[in-house]
């Protein structure tokens, strides 16, 4: 059994280990899970991710409990059908999906995955980041998967629902060295129905478009900005704005999450300013995407230029290499390049 140390990193290390264990069939034991976090051990979304991948692979699992700092996982093949994962309260449903998606490379049949919990919460990608940024990028390289946002879930109640259809896929090598021309920017503002009287969704949308125009100048024509605003039912009030940059070669997403007492205009500025910082470089993906693409670069091969070599990325690469994938990060300039040999 492969022995892994999870102390120097967060949930991404566990999700990567789960994905690679499922695809390769190699069992692992991870000690000191999230050991250097203020509250170490598994949180609710980590438990849900373990159980979702275990259900899809008929795995034998030990330690899949909240607070556990040791997890043993031994997969036993794949099955199609339905998988249901429940994240208590507003734990991230999106991050559960992050662990399950790579299974597409080893499936024999369609896997339907439903995850409940927080769809738009702190420390995780928004539902629209998954739907508009990450999945379209991976589809360009051969991933066959779709996502429906059945219900939004905000902090603290959660109660959101994401439904994935994941089909057997063969990925081409990732080749993302420079982004090329910016084709357009999607601006998707979402707020709960309880915030409609304050026009929160429209304010998020309009503030984001106005700031985009002011900071980008003539290089971003108004016709290339596609703004939307919508109101949705949810168990807790909340709002989120997601910007997605669509490039000739690459895709990047930036999220502003509403917080009590913070004006919608400030939330929009957070997302737009992150976009502006990314656009100053030539990386084809954002930093979050770069961290998450490491496992895909290992499985499919290829090169991905990332805007920054983060600690998350370094520790994630260490876990990938433990599964005998020859992936590495070569720092250079303002970012780095994920490298993986031809497979």
TrEMBL record:
Q: What is this protein called?
A: RNA 3'-terminal phosphate cyclase
User: Where does this one sit in the cell?
Assistant: Cytoplasm
Question: Which part of the chain is the RNA 3'-terminal phosphate cyclase domain?
Answer: 9-323
Kindly indicate whether the keyword Nucleotide-binding belongs to this entry: yes
Q: Which residues form the RNA 3'-terminal phosphate cyclase insert domain?
A: 178-276
Q: Which UniProt keywords apply?
A: ATP-binding, Cytoplasm, Ligase, Nucleotide-binding
Uppermost EC category: ligase
